[in-house]
Amino acid sequence: MNLRTGIIVCFFIDLEVGFQKDPHAATMNLRSLFSLFSSDLAIDLGTANTLVYARGKGIVVNEPSIVAINKTNGEVEAVGREAKEMLGRTPGNIVAIRPMKDGVIADFKVTERMLNYFIQKAHGRKVLVHPRIVIGVPSEITQVERRAVIDSAYRAKASDVVLVEQAMVAAIGAGLPITEPSGNMVVDIGGGTTDVAVISLSGIVYSRSVRVAGNAMDDAIMQYLKRNHNLLIGERTAEQIKMQVGSAAPLDTPLRMEIKGRNLIEGVPKTVAVGDSEIREALGECVATILNAIRVALERTPPELSADISDRGIVLTGGGGLLKNLDRRIREETGLPVSIAEDPLASVALGTGKMLTDFKLLRRIAID
Fold this sequence. Notes:
Layout (H helix, E strand, L loop, with lengths): L2 H19 L1 H15 L3 E5 L3 E6 L3 E7 L2 E4 L5 E4 L1 H5 L8 E4 L2 E2 L2 E2 L2 H15 L9 E6 L5 H13 L4 E6 H8 L10 E6 L4 E7 L2 E8 L3 H16 L1 E2 L2 H11 L10 E8 L5 E7 H24 L3 H10 L1 E4 L8 H9 L3 E3 L6 H8 L4 H7 L3
Parallel strand pairs: 1-9, 9-10, 11-17, 17-18
Antiparallel strand pairs: 1-2, 2-3, 4-5, 4-6, 7-8, 11-12, 12-13, 14-15, 15-16
């Protein structure tokens, strides 16, 4: 018998004696025992990245939502960062899959495996872990999509699953005073969806989710280069271009970047130099869709809350909020002050994480 088993056996002997003397105290001790085996988690299950927040530890996992699977035997070869390195570089028998699409589950079984991997990683590879989990989801998720997220989490050994809207927890993560009787507007631009919400008194007054965000921007860049330069590039290259020279409004200092890909006509490697103005043109439609969603939200906001938003402004969260000059473009189009959250990439995970210690607020904002 090893040391841990001996401790647990002794604990249960003490517990049995304790129940006879003080049942309430014994019950509390039993809960403390099970807390050794379970640690609550908050998960931002994103299209591009998955972040896991462990209670008392903060963000412990921040990796791409990608799984590499061996088609020959169905085994998982890699998950997260390792799998992303394989994108576009795998041999025929290995395929790198993004199981999340537009903020919802596209591949149920692969999502289950990915979640299981991240949960185990968050708990230091412990096997007997059955955590309670809070998961952020897009505001316009359907009943079927909601059930898929819950089922995947339970199959990944969760003991209890609660869903919350990403826009709400993004606002909490960004430090907005959502419990006050005043209007707060948050725009969360993730990998698969952009969630726009007006929040007051811990409730969502108006919310809208459009399935145009970071991944759609990457696709737009790939299509633009294919159409205008006969250049074929991969997802990783498109993402690098967006981050380095992508912008929503003209830059003070013009940028240029050399892009390597394959010539579609000749079939040989090719290098093309592009400027920020071309990439801005490529991203034009995506940015216009996000701006339109913000305009619609402002039009449908009650007048009293509109006055609050004109004072407080709009807060951008999510990786897409880091697109150069997007805040300036929104400011020009709406006439409202616009700010970017302190840690936009982690806002949803941080806000969801706060729900692990504020069960009263969690009950109020949880999706039924």
